[in-house]
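With this grant's support, we have settled on a layout for protein records. An illustrative entry appears below exactly as we store it:
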Amino acid sequence: RDDVTLRNWLSVGQDALEEAIDPLITSIREQAVRAANVEFEEYVSLKESAIESHCEEVKRLESKLEDLNDQLTTAADRAASLEVLEEQDAVEAALTSHRSELEELLEAEQNGFSDKQAAIRSRHSIEVRCEPLGAAYFEYEKGDVVLTLGEDTAETQLRVAFGRGVGVMEPVCCCRCGTQLSAENPLSVVQGDVVGMCCSE
């Protein structure tokens, strides 16, 4: 039975903690989402620039191949033809490489760069878990203590809730304005009332 009671109180405490820190967690998650969005936008911008660069390079290399084909047909001798053919091979290899990279980029763009977006969001994601690390159980006797207070010729009685081993269990407040009595707001007895500093003047 005690175990069940303890688990119930732990659950209550955990719920209270989660409710208390929920605004902070929400704020941190919103910041993380904004950071992820900024990073993804920068990535997309970079890839769009790469696509544009590859497109321009493909056009340039295709034009270069056409020029080389013209040179091949007008080559003066075998040596000149071999030189043009070697250059053609190099241009075709570069063209194939750019086309392949461009195709991959265009496919990723068509899918919204979903893989990269998922990776960025995963890296910026925040998981919060509240787990009790320990619990303490206290038993104490509770009752009321009646204090007789006097100042000069004024005297009154004050009843406060008190627990053995715990002390005063409720704040003591000025009976006129309701402010809590403390070292900074010491009590006084005025016309039989327990009051704070502001009401004692």
